[in-house]
Design a protein that fits this description.
Elements (H helix, E strand, L loop, with lengths): L9 E7 L4 E7 L1 H11 L3 H17 L9 E8 L6 E6 L3 E6 L16 H5 L2 E9 L3 E8 L6 H10 L5 E9 L5 E11 L5 H14 L2 H6 L4 H8 L5 E8 L1 E2 L5 H8 L4 H9 L4 E4 L6 E4 L1 H14 L1
Parallel strand pairs: 5-11
Antiparallel strand pairs: 1-2, 1-10, 2-9, 3-4, 3-6, 4-5, 6-7, 8-9, 12-13
Helix pairs in contact: 1-2, 9-10
This protein binds zinc ion (ZN).
Length: 301
């Protein structure tokens, strides 16, 4: 019997054309499926979230310090009511859509209508860097299709002309069949001949989700994107859906409630329950545990 195994997610980072071209490619099928399963997203929400998670992972590929992180917020007025993702330097990615149960008529050629689900609004990228501190940039959403929005953001807000491709294929049962993406950035000194070649190569690659579905690795995606351009792969980084939440942190959040709220929880004998937005993990605390938090607060006073 043949056992089908999903390839582990990872990205590769490359430099080409004498340092003028930076290129990244990622396969994110497993982490997108993990996000779908955790948040119970319906297909158009799965596609939007998967694209945003993949874009976040690609943007975070330039982080260098273990304490650095990057947040992508897609603040659209469509039925998904916004997407929030973040990633760290170790390739841990997490994220959610505000409304996971969205169902829309498909766009042309049966494609999931991500643009309509996201709507119009703004895109925000926040980098938390070890030395430079926190920096947030923003731009308007141009189509809500995420990849185009990111390319526009990078080109306009960060003055780095970029091409971005992001794709998620959802199967008939709603599970993620393939997901991945690429990002190519050009420095001002990039020769015109290389620009033209890149554009031609991207056209030849076509749909990145189809490429992943056909079994292409991040290295193979880059070999198509950078055909005819001298390049070298600098790094390979594993990617996974992983949240930083914990029972301890959830308890810390409960300690932020005021005393009357805490007393209420204890007196009603309900205890407390806290759900992490990013990964949907639920933390439950007994009335006794809440009482302990309350006592701890009194001790500090
Ligand atoms: Zn979490």
């Amino acid at each position: 019997m043949e056992v089908e195994t999903i390839m582990a997610d990872y990205l590769v980072r490359a430099i080409g054309a004498g340092g003028n071209v930076r290129a990244f490619a990622a396969v994110t099928t497993a982490l997108t499926e993990e996000a779908r399963r955790r948040h119970d997203t319906w297909p158009v929400a799965t596609a939007a979230l998967g694209r945003a998670l993949t874009g976040t992972a690609l943007l975070a590929a330039t982080l260098k310090d273990p304490n650095e992180s990057l947040t992508l917020r897609v603040a659209g007025d469509g039925p998904l009511r916004g997407i929030l993702c973040d990633a760290d330097e170790q390739g841990h990615v997490r994220g959610y859509v505000t409304e996971p149960h969205v169902d829309l008529e498909p766009a042309a050629r049966g494609k999931l209508n991500v643009g309509a689900a996201v709507g119009t609004g703004m895109l925000y990228v926040t980098r938390q860097l070890a030395l430079q501190g926190i920096y947030t940039g923003s731009s308007e959403l141009v189509s809500g299709e995420i990849a185009e929005d990111l390319a526009y953001y990078l080109t306009r807000s960060e003055q780095t002309p970029s091409a971005v491709g992001l794709g998620v294929r959802v199967g008939p049962d709603g599970a993620v069949v393939a997901a991945g993406g690429y990002m190519v950035q050009l420095l001002p000194a990039t020769p015109d001949a290389d620009r033209d070649r890149l554009e031609e190569n991207l056209g030849r690659l076509g749909s990145v989700s189809l490429a992943v579905e056909q079994g292409m690795t991040p290295e193979e995606i880059l070999s198509v994107v950078l055909t005819g351009i001298d390049y070298q792969i600098l790094e390979r980084r594993d990617l996974s859906f992983r949240c930083r939440c914990s029972r301890e942190r959830a308890l810390g959040a409960i300690a932020l409630l005021d005393e009357t709220e805490l007393s209420g929880l204890v007196e009603e004998g309900r205890g407390a329950e806290l759900t992490c937005h990013f990964c949907n993990a639920v933390y439950r605390f007994s009335p006794e545990e809440v009482l302990q938090v309350q006592r701890g607060m009194k001790d500090k006073q």
